[in-house]
Design a protein that fits this description.
Radius of gyration: 17 Å
Shape: globular
Mean pLDDT: 98
CATH architecture: 3-Layer(aba) Sandwich
CATH topology: Rossmann fold
Bound molecules: 1-O-phosphono-alpha-D-ribofuranose, uracil
CATH class: Alpha Beta
Largest sheet: 5 strands, mixed, barrel
Length: about 260
């Protein structure tokens, strides 16, 4: 396992602009900085730590669980920087709270999807580990999120995600193949998070709300999609926070 780089003294890291002591062992990472604020609203309290480029960071507690919320931006290079710097500062358990395109016809927009593993259709993760290595979420993190969704009776899906680089390129043959193989949702960061988790020895998982679905015959307007996505997002935020609480009770960060 490759260790994260060690820090020098009170070093402030270049991108997330945090230093030792700023980051909790439990980290929730949305892509969108605006989502950070919507997550933090549900915490007991949270302090603004730093804002630089696409990275906005708050640290606080949820039901006594020490949690940092840090946005990671869009795509592999941006998110890998956030994950690496957070790990250097002591992050141990990650949940990505994201958006994604539904890839099964029966997934309505606004559905929470727990990504249990991810197809590595992007470039960044291959710099860390060869393409044959599976991008898999930590079982305890995944199980905690599924338990929260089951307990609340929220309709959800769980399964393999499709992680990719080029948002505006659609390979229809690959899309059809992956849907046939049961892939649930397409997004751009879960595989990188899971591979960095394996490489650096931290626990990772992801829950996304679908904001679209390429297979729907009647495509909603962007405004209708946003309303449905936000309904799903409220479930993903609650799922991540409650899962972190469960994991903290289990001592998931003690390794
Ligand atoms: O909403 P976030 O978390 O950014 O996730 C998804 O949205 C972005 C693309 O619109 C990509 O980052 C993709 O992974
Ligand atoms: O990558 C992504 C993210 C959100 N929605 C999509 O359709 N694709």
């Amino acid at each position: 396992m490759g260790k994260a780089r060690e820090l020098k003294g009170n070093e402030i890291l270049k991108h997330i602009r945090c230093k030792m002591g700023d980051v909790a062992p439990y980290v929730i990472t949305p892509g969108d900085p605006a989502r950070v604020k919507r997550i933090v609203e549900h915490m007991d309290s949270a302090e603004f730590i730093a804002e630089n480029r696409e990275y906005t960071v708050y640290t606080g507690t949820y039901k006594g669980t020490p949690i940092t919320v840090c946005s990671h931006g869009i795509g592999g290079p941006a998110c890998s920087i956030a994950f690496e710097e957070l790990i250097m500062l002591g992050a141990k358990v990650f949940i990505r709270v994201g958006s994604a395109g539904g890839r099964q016809k029966d997934i309505p927009i606004g559905t929470p999807v727990v990504i249990t593993a991810s197809f590595r259709g992007e470039g960044t993760s291959k710099v860390y580990l060869p393409a044959e290595f599976p991008a898999v979420a930590d079982l305890d993190v995944t199980n905690a999120m599924i338990a929260v969704l089951k307990e609340s009776g929220t309709p959800y899906r769980a399964g393999v995600g499709y992680c990719r680089d080029a948002y505006y390129v659609q390979d229809q043959n690959l899309n059809a193949l992956l849907t046939e193989a049961g892939v649930m949702a397409a997004e751009q960061e879960a595989a990188i998070l899971y591979i960095i988790g394996s490489k650096r020895g931290v626990k990772t998982g992801a829950v996304v709300s679908t904001d679209s679905n390429i297979w729907l015959e009647n495509q909603p307007t962007i405004e209708e999609k946003e309303i449905l996505y936000r309904q799903g997002e409220s479930h993903t935020i609650r799922t991540a926070l409650e899962a972190m609480y469960k994991l903290y009770q289990q001592g998931a960060h003690e390794f």
